[in-house]
Amino acid sequence: MGPSVLLSDPVALKRRFVDLEDKVNIYEQVYAILRSRPQHEANSVFKRIRTGDDPQSILRHVEHGDLLLQLRVVPESRYRYEFPFMSPLPARLQTQDNPYLGSLIYEWEVERPRSPVRSPKRRGKQLETDRSASEDSTTPGPGPYVKPFHAAEVHDPLIDSAEPSKWTDVTTDNTLLRSLLRSYFLHEYQWFSAFQKEYFLSDMIADRRQFCSPLLVNAVLALACHSYRELTDRAEFWNPRTLGYGFLTEAKRHWELEQAGGRGKLTTIQAAIILNIVYNLNAMVKLGWQYTLQAIDMAHKMKLFKKPENWETLNPRLRAGRDFTAWSLFGWQSHCTYTLFEKPLVDDPPEVPLPAITADPSWYGEVWLKYPLEKILYPSHFAEFYKANTEFRVILNDISKTLHGEAGQSRSPPAESKIAALYWRLQAWYAALPESLSPRTIVFTAQMKLHMHYHHAIVTMLQSLMTGVSDITSSAPAASPESVAFPAPSQNVLAISSLLNSDPPSEPTGPPLPPLQTAFTLHRTQYETLLRLYYLRHGFEALDVFIMVSLMTLAFITTKELEDTRLSSAQPPSEEQKAHIDSLRATLVLCTRGLYDQGKSYYLSQTIFRLVRSGMHVDEKELLREYASLPDEEDSADAKMREELAQRLWPHPHPQAQNDWQEDVETEHASGPAAQEQEGWKVLDVLLKNYGEVRMEAPESDDSEDQG
């Protein structure tokens, strides 16, 4: 655009003026820093200018405290979080068959909440030894038991040596980029490990393209922005001024370039998993799923799940990276299709088995953690976690095949013997967990989530069975850790009943199953105990999408229990009934507060938070304001905007999705397997519509109280 056009176009002229004004403002702020800061800080800024850093990245350093100041700030390490409403652990959770009451984290958090912090005897020498001493036991020292996980920092010399700015055009600020990488490896990497960490970082340093690529780096950084708490606008995925928007845009550009090349690579498959997660965080679940579908197609073309004929002669590093990617992709699709009640995309696990940890620990790698004021490093026992988590997802994949049919087949009622065998496999898996993953010793967030996932799956199935599919819009479904999970279709309810109540195989592999209500109470109790212990130790402020799922599930269950208790209680209720109602309210307040905290990192949790709050009784809403310090509800115009945005982000291909859900399910079952794949999207659309109706048509008395 030439000068004459600029002068004749007032809109372009105004845009140019705003851009120049912003640029001048940045320069003025950098100049003010050089003039007003202490000499040593001003020298550091000047050196960054001489090395070519742009003014905006320098300013971001100072604003976020990443230039000298942040190095002197000790991360949050308070002894424990406090429950927002009722402090004691509810009596209904303190049962003799609750294994988590015998855990070390319970002893540190509940039984000794105000005792001086002392190291367990078996770990007493660890504080005086070097890094290798922390490998001697699978029980961590006192640090992880007395400090929240988000206070830790990933310690990895490879990150310190990396220059991520060579792989992205978004920013040249390597200090910030390294902080983002540490945040990613701390929060999301362990739960969904799309690639082998050491290979990725080594290739980043060496400028190799085998296990690192601009696409993968930008995808990782886009995800890391959601967990990096210094970015206060990290949930605003629509804002082009945010770092996350920039990295995601850059990743999409590289994706399109690679697709145009027509040749799939391991890093492309790995990036597809990361991009799917990012889109899910941004509430664009269906769009994100397309990346996984393309990754599966690439994997089949590369025969990634098959054992190559020359496997033994392959370069060991290439072989390990290839096999790690195959297992990670298999586990990702297994997890997603199971929680979406869909057929698996891949029927069988990779032909190359997971290596024994003792035989090849380097295949898995390790994530080392450094806690504030600690002189040692703690291993996360990543190898044991990854192996156990992957084996768990193999079982999930087989359950999906049994309940929903193998890939390409129509659904049919499963044989009870197959369902029973799968159930006993789950029990055997749980009983065989290594010491670092036992109920006694778990403390890291990924370890606790693995146990929660086990109980969450059973609780969700039992809830669907006990409430019935037709009641789903009132009790609401659970969601998958990185996507939305929906209730089992009606034809699968009997299959789930068989899973929980069928006779064991001819050769007994476990104890007899308890009655349905007993099983529900058992797993719901342990599930909530884990969630509460997670909060006491780690809080709900750091990015953790599976925690959002757990909070939502427990919130819906508790809301239903409160409704039932109100209907069945005497008027006025007895003291015992009052105590029970208060304990349920405490759980609901805790869950809703957690959803609000998670919503600071990603939009999906903001939507779920408003959905949960809109369905709460006015008494519980008052408790939220009093004990959880949450803001008042948004006005109707804002609520309408959010509902419309959410519905656009979650496409619903069927106009009748706003009708009764059960009627739609019956229609879809009559129209064939292709239409069945859309059931989940329709259920969510009904939930969003209900959310909008509650906000738009709520009684004026409730609105006035909420806004007051």
Please tally the helical runs, counting DSSP H or I stretches of 4 or more residues: 29
How many DSSP-defined strands? Answer: 3
Q: What ranges have pLDDT less than 50 throughout 5 or more consecutive residues?
A: 66-78, 113-136, 468-513, 646-708
Amino-to-carboxy terminus distance: 52 Å
DSSP strand (E) fraction? under 5%
Helical/strand content category: mainly alpha
Rounded to an integer in angstroms, the radius of gyration calculated over CA atoms is 26 Å
For the sheet with most strands, the description reads: 3 strands, antiparallel
Mean pLDDT value: 75
Question: What is the percent of helical residues?
Answer: 55-70%
Organism: Podospora bellae-mahoneyi
Keywords: Nucleus
Protein name: Xylanolytic transcriptional activator regulatory domain-containing protein
Pfam families: Fungal_trans
Question: Which helices and strands, and how do they pair?
Answer:
Elements: H1 3-8, H2 10-36, H3 39-50, H4 55-64, H5 104-111, H6 142-146, E1 153-154, H7 157-161, H8 174-187, H9 197-206, H10 214-227, H11 243-261, H12 266-281, H13 285-301, H14 316-339, E2 368-370, E3 378-379, H15 382-404, H16 416-431, H17 445-467, H18 472-475, H19 493-501, H20 516-538, H21 545-568, H22 575-598, H23 603-614, H24 618-627, H25 636-649, H26 661-670, H27 673-676, H28 679-697, H29 700-707
Antiparallel strand pairs: 1-2, 2-3
Biased composition (Basic and acidic residues): 125-134
Region (Disordered): 116-147, 652-681
Domain Xylanolytic transcriptional activator regulatory: 181-430
